[in-house]
Each structure stands twice: as structure tokens, then as C-alpha cells.
Amino acid sequence: MCTNPLTGVVPNIEKSICFVVNNGKFLLINKNLSDGINNWRIPGGLVQKNEDYLEAIFRVVHQQTNIDLRKVHFTYCYKIEPTDQADPILHVFHSVLKKDNSLESFSEKKDQLKWFDQSQVEYMNFQRKYKKAFQFICISHFYQEINQQEMMKQPLLEGQSLCSRTIINLIGTVGAGKGTQGKQLSEKYKLSTLSLGDIYRNECRSQTPIGNLILLHHRTNGQMTFAPNEIAYGLLFKQIANPIYGKGFILDGFPRTAEQGKVYNDSFLRPNDIHIPIYLALNESDIYRRLEHRYICSQCEKQVREEDKLVKEGCCPDCNGILIKRKEDISREKIDQRLQFFKKHIPEVISSVVLRDPISIIYAEHFSTPQDIFKRIEEVIEQRTLLRSHQNRKKSDLKSKYIAFGMAFCLSVMVIGSKMWGRARR
């Protein structure tokens, strides 16, 4: 790492690590091939130049373990900031394997890998920040698995809303399927969708003062710029004041920058919200293919795929409007600009959102149909809500114990006091 010649400061390096878990055991690596307990390490490594921390963890874990994190339950937990310039920024991930935890599938790497119980990992000689990351993974509200019988006591029913103020935030590039998945989630959980992009388009199409201001901003600064933050905040807060969003909503398109992420955590979310951020990731080749075959209604902007029969008929099933292609989807050059713009900002967005709650990452290309992706999202939502319910029940039980203890203590004091008062009167 080179020193900045102007300031003499060495910039912080970045490192990504991943706790791979199966059946309550943690997968560790041993490059020295020694049986000493302190020679085992958490899978992970340095983020290389021109590489983001998400790409780095996929590359390093696959090299070290042959595991493709894109195909398993995968979550970005949080970011540990450095204490000084020589200390690396640490990105902490968590992955759950559902298959058998034997190491035969790792072929030639199996001698370097071993599963350890949580109690064994606790006594290993890790650096302080790695210990901190491990403790975060193991706290009950995130890592601890719920007993299956306990899960069956309060199942999520089809068509039933999750609970008050459940916010499912779908994060992803254009063409990742946020609109398609948001519609299905809305139908199942009875939560309204809230898309910043749709709000912008409605304002522009209706030629409102805000819409005209957005159009003027794009004409002046170019399409690949965000409208002023004040516009985004004002429109979103105006929308969520509507009673239909009282129990929660499916959010799409916000936050888009680190600054918006801070406002999102501090002002947009409430302390008691169940917040479920989900990142829908997609390869660039799949994005091009999807956008080339995507149509929208010229009136209501309903999205339709080319393989759908409605495209052949050329009209929208909702309003009979003419199906067209969005002008930003026509040219590959414009698609490239949007992708580069997204890739520039997504690392800081994820880093800001994860300060509130872990982000589940779903790779859409590994699921053949939108229904498969939807099932995967359902698993994430149900796991998060069940874990939250389990945590709340534990807090409620603890509160009940404190109340019972307090009542018993007060009763004891009253009894002792009455006896002492009786003796004093004698």
C-alpha cells in the first residue's frame, strides 16, 4: 500500500471475511496444515484494486473453500471501521449451508478445512475485531436457530400481513426484477409498494411543479444524475404519511447514496420497525438480455416480458394502452451508463443500510424463474420475522420475570415491615 505523497497518510485497506455455518458449526481454513487450534482462520482476504468488497468475498471464499456464495443463503452483516490508518476496514458476511457438512465436496481442499463448534471458535486466538464479528454472528437475534416446534406455534399465513411497520427494501440494478418481486410480495403480505422511480415518473408525467423541477435538473445536469435529495425526502415522507403505508411497505429505489442511507436509517426508519433489506444481484449479461426483452405500457407503465402473450397482442391488459420499450432500454450505450452509475454508488448504499440491519443477498441468475426467486425471498422474510418474534418473546419473558421478582420483593418488604412494626408497638 503506497503512502499519499501530499499528506503522508497510508490509506486504509479493505478486507472481507465470511462466517460459513452449517448445522451450528463454523467452517475454518488452515493454510499451514497444522493441527494447532490457533492456526485456523475465518475464510476471507484483502479487497484488491478495482474490486469492491462484495466481489472480493466471492473470489476469496471460492478460492479457499470451493464454495460459490452466490448459490447459498448469504448475508452482509456489518462493517467494522478501522481504529487507525494502519488498520483495515473489515466487511463481515455470513452464509448458511443447507447441505450435509461433510468436506468430501471440497475435493483437494478438504485437508485445509474443518468444521468447529461455536464453543471451540470462542477460545481461538483471533484478533479483537474478528472476535467482535464472531460475537455479532452468534448473538441470539441473528445467528441462533429457532426450535422447529417453536416456529410452528406462530406460522405466517398465506395472505396475512407480517406485522406493524414491516419494511421490505428491494435493492438492485435496473432489470434485477425489483418491480416483479415487489408486486408478488405486495399481493401475498398485503403491503403497498413504494417506488421512488415510479413517484418521479408520475410527477413528470403529470407536469407538477416538482416534476418540472426534476426534468429541468436532468436537462441541465444529464440523465445520469440524481435529483436533489430534498426532492426525494419530501416525496417519500409525503407518501408514507398515507394510511395505506401504516403497516409497512415494499420499498424500491431508495436509498441511492450514502447520504440518503444515513437519512434512511436516522429518520425514515423507526426503532421498532422490522426492516428486511434484500439485494437482488444479477450478472451484466443477464441484465442486457432482460432489458432487451422488456416492454412497458405507454399509459400505466405496467412492465411486460417479451415471452408473455400480451406482447404479441400489443396492448396492456390493465388499461389497453400500447406496449412500448422505454427509451433508456433501447440503446446499449444508455444501459452501460446506468450500470456504471449503479456500480459506482451501490457499495456505499449497502454499507450505509447494513448499519441498521444485515442485508440478504440473492443472486437472481441462479434461479430460473421469477417464481423461484420469489420463493427464495419468502424464505428470507420468514426467517427474519420469526427470529424477530423469537427475540421479542425472549424480551417479554425476561420482562415478566423482572415484574414477578419486583412484586415478590415488594411483598417481602411489606411482610417484614409489618412484623417489625408489630414488635415496635409491643
Structure in words:
By secondary structure, the protein is α/β, with parallel strands linked by helices. 44% of the residues lie in helices and 18% in strands. The chain is built from 14 helices and 14 strands. The protein has helices spanning 53-65, 118-122, 128-138, 148-153, 178-189, 196-205, 209-221, 229-240, 258-268, 284-292, 309-313, 327-330, 332-353, 370-425, and strands at 14-22, 25-29, 44-46, 73-80, 89-96, 113-117, 166-172, 192-195, 248-252, 274-281, 294-297, 303-305, 323-324, 359-363. Strands 1, 2, 3, 4, 5, 6, 7, 8, 9, 10 and 14 form an 11-stranded mixed β-sheet that branches. Strands 12-11-13 form a 3-stranded antiparallel β-sheet. α5 packs across α14, α6 (196-205) crosses α7 and α9 (258-268) packs across α13. The longest helix has 56 residues, at 370-425. The chain is globular and about 85 Å long. 27% of the residues are buried. Residues 1-10 and 140-163 have low confidence and may be disordered.
Detail the topology: elements first, then pairings:
Layout lengths: L13 E9 L2 E5 L14 E3 L6 H13 L7 E8 L8 E8 L16 E5 H5 L5 H11 L9 H6 L12 E7 L5 H12 L2 E4 H10 L3 H13 L7 H12 L7 E5 L5 H11 L5 E8 L2 H9 L1 E4 L5 E3 L3 H5 L9 E2 L2 H4 L1 H22 L5 E5 L6 H56 L1
Parallel strand pairs: 1-5, 7-9, 7-10, 8-9, 10-14
Antiparallel strand pairs: 1-2, 1-3, 2-6, 4-5, 4-14, 11-12, 11-13
Helix pairs in contact: 5-14, 6-7, 9-13
